[in-house]
Amino acid sequence: xxxxxxxxxxxxxxxxxxxxxxxxxxxxxxxxxxxxxxxxxxxxxxxxxxxxxxxxxxxxxxxxxxxxxxxxxxxxxxxxxxxxxxxxxxxxxxxxxxxxxxxxxxxxxxxxxxxxxxxxxxxxxxxxxxxxxxxxxxxxxxxxxxxxxxxxxxxxxxxxxxxxxxxxxxxxxxxxxxxxxxxxxxxxxxxxxxxxxxxxxxxxxxxxxxxxxxxxxxxxxxxxxxxxxxxxxxxxxxxxxxxxxxxxxxxxxxxxxxxxxxxxxxxxxxxxxxxxxxxxxxxxxxxxxxxxxxxxxxxxxxxxxxxxxxxxxxxxxxxxxxxxxxxxxxxxxxxxxxxxxxxxxxxxxxxxxxxxxxxxxxxxxxxxxxxxxxxxxxxxxxxxxxxxxxxxxxxxxxxxxxxxxxxxxxxxxxxxxxxxxxxxxxxxxxxxxxxxxxxxxxxxxxxxxxxxxxxxxxxxxxxxxxxxxxxxxxxxxxxxxxxxxxxxxxxxxxxxxxxxxxxxxxxxxxxxxxxxxxxxxxxxxxxxxxxxxxxxxxxxxxxxxxxxxxxxxxxxxxxxxxxxxxxxxxxxxxxxxxxxxxxxxxxxxxxxxxxxxxxxxxxxxxxxxxxxxxxxxxxxxxxxxxxxxxxxxxxxxxxxxxxxxxxxxxxxxxxxxxxxxxxxxxxxxxxxxxxxxxxxxxxxxxxxxxxxxxxxxxxxxxxxxxxxxxxxxxxxxxxxxxxxxxxxxxxxxxxxxxxxxxxxxxxxxxxxxxxxxxxxxxxxxxxxxxxxxxxxxxxxxxxxxxxxxxxxxxxxxxxxxxxxxxxxxxxxxxxxxxxxxxxxxxxxxxxxxxxxxxxxxxxxxxxxxxxxxxxxxxxxxxxxxxxxxxxxxxxxxxxxxxxxxxxxxxxxxxxxxxxxxxxxxxxxxxx
Length: 911
Description:
The chain has 6 domains: 23-33 and 232-245 and 434-452 and 608-680, no CATH class; 37-225 and 881-910, Roll (C8orf32 fold); 248-289, no CATH class; 298-432, Sandwich (Jelly Rolls), CATH 2.60.120.1020; 456-597, PAW domain (Jelly Rolls), CATH 2.60.120.1020; 686-863, Galactose-binding domain-like (Jelly Rolls, Sandwich). Helix content is 8%, strand content 36%.
């Protein structure tokens, strides 16, 4: 049984439950990780998996930038507790909705956790961050998916260098403002072209954003957060399946998003509403981004006499009998509580209960708590007599929680057995980020199964706005709050300056505490002010101070966590206090607390891990396959071989404890019994050679239409070096020519002298907006070469059937992962001598062309992303990260061009 709660005696706080003292989870902190993408379990695991196999700091930074572009989508940012969600682990596991300021804050948190100084900038109508290594700061933009170098082509530029005046061979010696932005962006279609990923902004537009007069260094602020970790615990009779797509597209309860939207519908049971998007489905702001997935978690507690004690969270005056769970004695109410866990954020919960109520004086009720039993809300009271099957669907009551306590209260007035719970089952829907779930790729994949610390956890991450926090604390003094979080300073502060202010939170856990980690994000800027973190294990009789923030220099945006040391054995309750004293408005941005406790059962129970995917065929159709692995011991690594013509379309990942008495035999291995073999897929890094056609004259046999500004009256657009956007349509047509399906144009480029040519490209778009990644482009382009302009030899046809596997690592796709404005290459095995190059075009639609290119080479170099699989070390401890750097305020920047000084960007030679 639980120990006496000292806090109740001291403060008179009602205790919500008495515990059985039994195990709550059979497998704790289960990890399923593949070598296809990073481990998003916690900040330490993310950093280790993405960067550990890279030796140089510059390479580690690039790798993290690369994975962060994949983990988020540029759309209306997710708002939680009044702030943009900048906790990397919480954002990347559950959401992924991040605009420029959001992902800049996320990057500040990650790179600072890596031990690297960071800076947060506003640049006109955009927000970016910098990270320092190799003696200088470097800009990283994961919103626009942009990297810029100095004129050396490899040193990443800083914020104030990008918009400066400059000139080099890339601009033909022409001095321009924003030279680096226009001519030295690594993630662009071409110099002076467009970004290939993110919002596909033009480089000319970005040059204006980096105007030195528009730069604002937020020396006082990093807009970051940190603390969340992913915790997946499994019990008997529990199955968790995560899907790489949303499950409500065809739901009968789906609603238009917004109400006048006729194309996008979503079921409120399947998403966490975004206050920043009128409380709609966050995915409705970018329905083509395909980032929201869903999970289904089913749990049926064992209510038999033998399994009851292991299945419940707490009991009070009830017992398990052959007649069901009933009160211990008649005339006295009892209750049993169950814990429903999400791992990912919960969007809705269905409760299926079989109950019995014999007389009108008998009572059966169900209540829920989303704050570990501190507050309860009744959601059902039986009104009928006899046996009943009750099916409850809860959305708003549980939405955005990570775990829910469900309490069934029973009262048999005349006889104890007159009120009974015969069975109960939970169906939990979660929201997941489909881009960060463990992936499989074409070929051989290595899967790692392990567990973290053998402990369960209770987490409290309270909303500090307005009065939302008041029901969550057990004591407070001198506290005032902003109704809406101001964002750039504390939301909770002292009502009366220069007097102590504090809030106290309470944790009750069913078994002995094994750990307590607490902290948050603090603002401490007034002279002689301080913010303290304390905890008590004796109900408030004595307090241990683990941290005191007394530094008042900028940035006034400090993240700090501490781990309580030497918690006495037998302690099941703990208080956490945040105390501050300031003459100003210093205080708390946000706080997070996690209490850990040990299960009574140690060891590992066998787990089934099932991946399901669709293999892409030559004709772009798909065939579904799956693989089930029984895990009898940990750690375990095994392989799954994926066939087909491209990276697979991921469907689901299921985990559950092995049922010792299954209803049917489980088929382990591949669903079709075939191991297709294969080797680990090898990515590529591409490098362009010299563009021989740049600025060269050409002739065309057909005149362009004038559709939406298309046309080439001066005969210069197609070799001016400016490649249009990777997204066709809109203003992209004005950068080149347009032909209709009735035309048969030929474009003949004169290189002015015979040269060795090894590669050719033509950028195509038009309407319909055919996607090369879906094999939709039906236009044909044949490339022919000649030395005299009379006799032409065919070098082949441009292949417009692009596959995801063909996309080089250093080419950033748009957020929707399409390629409707494809600069398609034809690379020869051997160079040919040519002065004239003919592009013979057969349009199958209204076809736009912005550029034809002839190159001396396009080189593809093998490239390994170097994911590090777990090595068995627990990296979830937040206290080891140096989350504050260079506290001295920097009010001014020296705006001048800085020469090459190291900090080389990763490339094939550094792989």
